[in-house]
Amino acid sequence: MFTTMLFLALLLLPTPTETSYERVPNATMSQASNVLTLENSIHGGQAESEEDIVSYVATFIEGTSSNDKMIEWEEDLWIKDSNVNGVMYRGTKYYYSLSPHMSFDPVSLGEVAMSNIRIINKNAEYIIYTLNK
User: Fold this and answer.
1) Alpha-carbon dihedral angle through residues 128, 43, 108, 98, given to the nearest 10 degrees
2) Helix/strand number for the chain, H first, E second
3) pLDDT digits (tens, 9 = 90+) for 49-102
4) Contact 87/57 with Cβ under 8 angstroms?
5) Is 59 helix (H, G, I), strand (E, B) or coil?
6) Distance separating alpha carbons of residues 52 and 98, to the nearest angstrom
7) Residues with Cβ < 8 Å from 74, sequence gap 6 or more?
């Protein structure tokens, strides 16, 4: 099952180019395979720009943003920089978790608790969130 999840996660990633490589610290695969629980409800306050935020972050999720480079998480495992470091939009950093696939965002890695985030949008494919201030 783990091999299948890894294969599916890799299918979602664009093919890296020679100029897009960067080494990042390693994490265990068990950390990376944590999946967000959907216990939090979507909070208000983003009504007028939620659609813009989702549209912008979705370009990184779907691999259509040319600003998203691939980074080497561990040997032979390349992931999107945006999945690890988030996406800046109008001065705020947004993160996404791919549901139910392997994801490398702060919540999926166990670095941030669900109680410390504000969910902007969630659907069957991903969750977009920002950290509470």
Assistant:
1) -30
2) 4, 6
3) 899 999 999 999 998 888 899 999 999 999 999 999 999 999 999 999 998 888
4) yes
5) helix
6) 19
7) 26, 27
Domain boundary assignment for the chain: 2-131
The H-assigned helical ranges of 12-73 are 29-32, 50-61
C-alpha to C-alpha distances, 105 to 49, 58, 73, 100, 117, nearest whole angstrom: 22, 15, 12, 13, 12
Q: How far apart, in whole angstroms, are the C-alpha atoms of residue 33 and residue 24?
A: 17
| CB-based contact 119:127 (threshold 8 Å) | yes
Q: What is the DSSP letter of 100?
A: S
CB hemisphere CA count around 23 (13 angstroms): 4
Angstrom CA distances, 125 to 13, 82, 122, stand at 14, 16, 8
- Say whether pTM exceeds 0.85: no
What digits encode the pLDDT tens for the residues 8-54? Answer: 444 444 444 333 444 444 444 444 334 333 323 334 444 448 999 99
Distance CA 99, CA 102 (A): 8
